[in-house]
Amino acid sequence: MPALPLAAGALLAGQMAGFARGREARDDIVLRVLGPVAVHAHDGWLGGPPQQRLILAVLALQAGQVVPAHELIDAVWEERPPRSARASLQALVTRLRQLLAGLPGAQVERRGDGYRLRLGPGTTDVQQFRALARSGREAGDSRAAVAVFDRALSLWRGPALADVPDTAPVEAIRAGLAEERLSARQDRAAALLELGRDQEAAGELAALLAGHPLAERLAGMLMVALYRCGRRGDALRVFRDMRERLAGQLGVEPGPDLQHLHQQVLAGELKPEGSPGRPARGGEPDRGTGPARAPAAAPESVAGTTLPVLPRQLPAAVTPFTGRAAELTALSGLLEHVPAAGGAVVISAIGGTAGVGKTALAVHWAHQVAGRFPDGQLYANLHGFGPSGAPVSAADAIRGFLGSLGLPQDRIPAGPDAQAALYRSMLAGKRMLIVLDNAGDEQQVRPLLPGSAGCLVLVTSRRSLAGLAAHGARLITLDVMSEAEAEELLAARLGPHRAAAEPEAVSELAGLCARLPLALAVAAVRAAASPGYPLSALAAQLRDMPTRLDALTAQDQASSVRAVFSWSQQNLSDPAARMFALLGLHAGPDITAAAAASLAGTGVREARLALAELSGAHLITEAVPGRFSCHDLLRAYAIEAAHAREGEAERGAAIRRVLDHYLHTAWSAACLLLPGRDPAFRLAPPEPGTRPEALRDADDALGWCRAEHQVLLALIGQAAADGFDSYAWQLPWALSDYFSRAGHWQLLAETHRAALAAARRLGDRGGQARAHQSLGYAQLMSSPGQSSHPHLTQALSLYRELGDQFGEAAVHFGFSMAFGAQRQPRQALGHARQVLSLARAGEHRGEEAAALNSIGWLHAMLGDYRPALAYCQRALRMHRETGDLMGQSATWDSLGYVHHHLGDFAQAAACYQQALQQARDVGSLLDQATILDHLGATRDAAGDPQAAGEAWQQALGIFNDLHHPGAAEIRRKLRDPQAHLSAPAPGPLWVR
Fold first, then answer.
1. Which of 155, 248, 738, 987 is deepest in the core (most CB within 10 A)?
2. How are strands ordered across the β-sheet holding 107-111?
3. What Cα–Cα distance (Å) separates residue 464 from each residue in 352, 426, 439?
4. How far is Cα 849 from Cα 713, in angstroms, rounded to an integer?
């Protein structure tokens, strides 16, 4: 562009700044992250607590995109998320929604296993900064560029995310944003040099270089500025200092561009105008990152020239391509970050398990956007995973690219470093799309990355390639398809008429193929090869897990599910390969590192390393922090691997270790939840190599049971099916208190029916007694109107044969509860006194305290309130001595009942509040509902129907969640408060 008169230049600069403000830098910023995180709400800037600000910032930086929950958890808690991380995240999001409630159009949405922040375009400071920086780089006039860069940089109010906790993910975000800020400041300095404002540029560049002492571009621009200011010696000193720093810290020499500039300054041949990165007058922009062009004779002379060949190397796209809308949108979002000059190379790495469709997605999207890259498209299959086991070296890939770019073989340098430098030089200033498919690791990819902006690199790999994040890569993990996408893919391959004829079979096939695109494609090919074969028959073949992979085998190894999985496995270290095989023996839907250590008989650290390797190879998924799983097809392959590499004895030992892990940890949890529980019950020593988890307290115990709930159910089924009968009855017994507290009466009954069968097969009368006892309790609690006496009678007879007084006392307690629920307090009182006698004889103080509470309650039911009060007070003292919170909760409830009938409603309500808090502390849902029912009755009797209604509504919610018959009585009270007696419903809380 020719030099403009000062007035005209100023006018144009003002117009450009106005354009930026009007179109890209509006004054309606509502969310700030470039400094302290804040939202403009309620007529002020608000941020909330630190963790809330962090969640807000992460969502804002990816506004409009779904951020997986595990990313948010990692950002807040890094590598040590609490067991309650998911619940805490939900609470943070809830408070964030309240904060954003006053912003029009602002909304935090739940999408699958993640969250998306919706905001108007250009309403965050980071959006406006990026738009302005892009405008500054595209400005055709340097004065306008400086004005726009000033506007962009004014949006920064300190370091990004300045007031959020310093976790590793936050530091990575800050570093990325700091690079964007540095890039804008560099481009502004380049514009200052174009304008001849050399003294101002020198001051700015010296400060920038002090903060980024290894940035060669900054050093080059500072040398130019100093040289023009007549400070040739200072310019040479900048070069010497840079060379010393590079040699001392990195062991390298300055790049050829900086060395060439040094020679120009030494010879006094530096042009008086122009700047690195932007030409001074006329011509096309220099899009290289170096400070000046290399001399014409150097290999780098190819930079900025027209390529001899325009490569169009993309392979044919998969047709028909279905689904992946969110991933395609995320990839298209990268295009706005591909600048014409300045900035960094834009990289996206698509990771995922074998057969998930990474290449199909990358090639499909590349074809869609190929027109945005006029200098061509390069493609290379790096064979990181395949039948040969020999990945393509980076040097071989570069030589292939140089040939594809039209460079004659005799012009390709011999050394790999020189080849890589020539490759980067040929791409300098170009707008090119580069697809690096099937990469083995980051080391294979890094040499293939261009050195300047304008290019977009798309990498696919079965590994996560997290190391590319240091280069600014956007990591996309491709999961299996959604149900709708999987069914759509099958319908597209089978034809709409055939799919519509058997919709249920299509849905079942999608599930049996684990919604894995490769497996879906193989199944569709098999179906297409036999058009008269019903889809339901193909689904029937796939139902059998041991032979499922046989049904998904194709003649082409690249399309065979088993073969494709094997290529991932052969790249594993031996400990990881063994761990993967053993995971096929684990029945649960997921596993922790601690359980995996027991399964493999290793230390926890070794297990974590193996799981991390498997996760990095996308053979397992860490969908929830600390919990690892894989889809059914990979599980089937893992089972095959286990049988191939482990003998029968080794497989049996591994299964016993993992069963012992869960059984011994579950019993530890049971004793923490209910101190003194079943002193006659003894576990055999665990299998050598087992590492049960160390639980610290009742909260830990309850958290572990909740986290392992589904795993434990699967293991009970596995133990019963595979003949591990001692585990099949002991695991349910260890979990009976947890099932009861959570109100899982159906599960309590189902698992103990299996336990009873296993104990009978073993001839274990103690196991039979405990199973009968739990079945009686389950029936009593789920259906109070039905008789639980047959199971309790059987249990009592067996305990007496065994001489187990503690067991006898527990059964009498059950009888007492049953008669009390049937409003037969005198019969109930007789059994409660039996409990007291047996407990005292065996010196079981916890059981004695429970008996005293039950006797007190039953006296109250009979109208004997003063003795009832004395019994319950003694029970409370004993429960406090033993530290039994559940017993204390039950006794506070009984005391509330007694005070209610003595007419002291205030004291009764206080007792119920204490009981309710302790029931919540121990996680007993049914007790909470029962106490709330009692509290409602007391509030109503005290003349506060509103408070009564609130308590009953809370009780109704819990009863409904538990599908408990008590819900019907609560509904009746809410409909007609006068239709009931103002007294709590009978029935003490179950504490034993």
1. 738
2. 66-68, 114-118, 107-111
3. 7, 29, 10
4. 32
CB 825 within 8 A of CB 855: no
- 389 vs 371: CA distance, rounded Å: 35
The Cα–Cα gap between 244 and 248 comes to: 6
State the residue for tokens 């060395």.
259
pTM, two decimals, is 0.57
| 855 within 8 A of 815, measured Cβ to Cβ | no
Residue 434: other Cβ atoms inside 10 A: 25
| Each residue's pLDDT tens digit, 460-475 | 988 878 778 767 778 8
Distance in angstroms (rounded) separating the CA atoms of residues 395 and 385 = 18
Summarize pLDDT for 794-837 with one digit per residue, the tens. Answer: 999 999 999 999 999 889 988 888 888 778 889 889 999 988 98
Strands (E) across 19-134 are located at: 31-32, 38-41, 44-46, 66-68, 107-111, 114-118
Distance CA 800, CA 815 (A): 15
Token pair for 299: 């290999």
SS3 state of residue 229: coil
Per DSSP, the residues of 724-736 read -HHHHHHHHHHHH
Q: Per DSSP, what are the bridge partners of residue 31? A: 39, 124
Contacts of 985 (CB under 8 A, 6+ apart): 930, 933, 934, 937, 969
- For residues 732 and 720, is the Cβ–Cβ distance under 8 A? no
Instruction: Please provide residue 975's backbone torsions phi and psi, each rounded to the nearest 5 degrees.
Output: -70, -40
* 785: its two tokens: 């109107």
Q: Could you tell me if residue 58 is left (phi over 0), alpha (psi between -120 and 50 degrees) or otherwise beta?
A: alpha
Full set of structural domains in the chain with CATH: 31-125 (1.10.10.10), 197-267 (1.25.40.10), 325-478 (3.40.50.300), 483-562 (no CATH), 572-596+604-643 (1.10.10)
| Burial call 862-891: b when 16+ CB within 10 Å, e when fewer | eeebeebbebbbbbbebbeebebbbbbbbb
Please compute, for residue 831, the number of CA atoms within 13 A of its CA located in the half-sphere on the CB side: 23
DSSP 176-217: HHHHHHHHHHHHHHHHHHHTT-HHHHHHHHHHHHHHSTT-HH
Going along 840-899, which residue ranges are E strands?
A: none
| 342-356, 651-665, 669-683: least confident range | 342-356
Cα 670 to Cα 680: distance, rounded to the nearest angstrom: 14
- Taking the C-alpha atoms of residue 482 and residue 607, their distance in angstroms, rounded to an integer, is 31
Identify residue 533 by its one-letter amino acid code: Y
Distance CA 736, CA 776 (A): 12
| Residues 74-105: tens digit of each pLDDT | 778 766 677 777 777 877 887 787 777 767 77
CB 51: neighbour CB atoms within 10 A?
19
Instruction: Report the alpha-carbon distance of residue 257 to residue 245 in Å, rounded.
Output: 17
What secondary structure letter does DSSP report for 20? Answer: I
User: Does residue 804 or residue 277 have the better pLDDT?
Assistant: 804
Separation CA 952–CA 970 (nearest Å): 6
Please report where in the chains the tokens 């498919």 appear, as a residue.
437
Q: What is the DSSP string of 593-654?
A: HHHHHHHHTS-HHHHHHHHHHHHHTTSSEEEETTEEE--HHHHHHHHHHHHHHS-HHHHHHH
Contact status, residue 818 vs residue 788, Cβ threshold 8 Å: yes
Among the listed residues 435, 443, 481, 479, the one whose alpha carbon sits nearest the alpha carbon of residue 460: 435
Burial (CB < 10 A; 0-12, 13-18, 19+), residue 675, is middle
- Residue for token pair 């789920």: 782
Q: What span, in angstroms and rounded, lies between the C-alpha atoms of 250 and 257?
A: 18
HSE-CB of 552 using CA atoms within 13 angstroms: 36
Angle 427-432-436 from CA coordinates, rounded to 5°: 95
